[in-house]
UniProtKB/TrEMBL annotation:
Lineage: Bacteria, Bacillati, Bacillota, Clostridia, Eubacteriales
Protein name (record): ABC transporter ATP-binding protein
Gene3D superfamilies: P-loop containing nucleotide triphosphate hydrolases
One annotated Gene Ontology cellular component of this protein: membrane protein complex
A Pfam family: ABC_tran
ABC transporter domain segment(s): 4-229
Keyword terms, alphabetized: ATP-binding, Nucleotide-binding, Transport
Length: 231
C-alpha cells in the first residue's frame, strides 16, 4: 500500500455559474520516501491538490487514503493529530508567526507534546543548528532575510518530526542561490527518509526531485521519473 493513495479525486469550488472544477478525477500513488515535484500553469490545481494531500481541504468526490486510512472517515480530532504529527507545510511566504521569536516559532509544533521544557529546548536548538540559524533564535521573523525565514520554516517542520513535508512554492520568494540552498536542505531531508512534495514553476527546482508530475486544467498530463537529478 502506498503512503498516499488518491482515487478519482475531484474538487469543485462554488455552484452553478460560479462553479470551478479545480481537480478532475485525479488518481495518484505516492510511496514513503518519494521526492516529488508538482508543476503546471497557474490555476491548474496544484495548491488544491497539495491541500487535499495535507488534509487541509476535502475533495468533492473520490477517495483519499493516507497510510491506509480513509481520510473522509476521520473525525476532527483524528485529523488534527495527523496535521500536527504527520504532515508539515512550507509556504512561499514562510507563514511564520510574526510576533513570535524564531525560537518560539520552531517550538510551536512541540506545544502539545508532553515533554519537559528543557528537552524541548534541546530539540529546538538542534533543529536551528541543523539549518544554521541558531544565532538568530531570539529575533522576530521580520529581522531575518527571506532565506533565513524559509530555513526557520524548515526547522519548524524538522522539529515536528513529521514524516511528510509538503511545500507550496517554497523558493518562490527567494533568489536563485538561496533557492538552491533550500533545495539542498530538502534533498538532505529526503535522503534521511522524509517524503517530500514540492510545488514549483521553476524547472531548476523540479530538477532536484526524483519524480515530476505535471498537471493542467485539474488533470495529470505527465508523471515521469527524473533521469537527470540535480546533484
Ligand atoms: N477557495 C476557492 N474558491 C473558489 N475557487 C478556487 C478556490 N481556490 C482555488 N480556486 C480555483 O481553483 C483552480 C485551481 O486553483 P489552485 O490554487 O489549485 O491553482 P494553482 O495551480 O495552485 O495555481 P498557482 O500556480 O497560481 O498557485 C483555479 O481556477 C482557482 O481559481
Ligand atoms: Mg498555488
Amino acid at each position: 500500500m502506498p503512503l498516499i493513495k488518491l482515487q478519482n479525486i475531484s474538487k469543485v469550488y462554488g455552484k452553478n455559474d460560479y462553479k470551478t472544477e479545480a481537480l478532475k478525477n485525479i488518481s495518484l500513488n505516492i510511496d514513503k520516501g518519494e521526492y516529488l515535484a508538482i508543476m503546471g500553469p497557474s490555476g491548474s490545481g496544484k495548491s488544491t491538490l497539495l491541500n487535499i494531500i495535507g488534509c487541509m481541504d476535502n475533495q468533492t468526490s473520490g477517495k483519499y487514503y493516507l497510510k491506509d486510512n480513509d481520510i473522509s472517515l476521520m473525525n476532527n480530532k483524528e485529523l488534527s493529530i495527523i496535521r500536527n504529527q504527520s504532515i508539515s507545510f512550507i509556504f512561499q511566504h514562510f507563514a511564520l508567526m510574526k510576533d513570535y521569536t524564531i525560537y518560539d516559532n520552531v517550538e510551536l509544533p512541540l506545544s502539545f507534546r508532553k515533554i519537559t521544557k528543557r528537552k524541548k529546548k534541546g530539540l529546538v536548538m538542534n533543529c536551528l543548528k541543523e539549518l544554521h540559524i541558531e544565532e538568530q533564535y531570539k529575533k522576530k521573523p521580520n529581522q531575518l532575510s527571506g532565506g533565513q525565514q524559509q530555513r526557520a520554516a524548515i526547522a519548524r517542520a524538522l522539529c515536528s518530526d513529521a514524516k511528510i513535508i509538503l511545500a507550496d512554492e517554497p523558493t518562490g520568494a527567494l533568489d536563485q542561490k538561496t533557492g538552491k540552498d533550500i533545495m539542498n536542505i530538502l534533498t538532505k531531508l529526503n535522503n534521511q527518509g522524509k517524503t517530500i512534495i514540492i510545488i514549483t514553476h521553476d524547472p531548476l527546482i523540479a530538477s532536484y526531485c526524483k519524480r515530476i508530475l505535471t498537471i493542467k486544467d485539474g488533470q495529470i498530463i505527465s508523471d515521469i521519473i527524473n533521469e537527470h537529478i540535480h546533484q
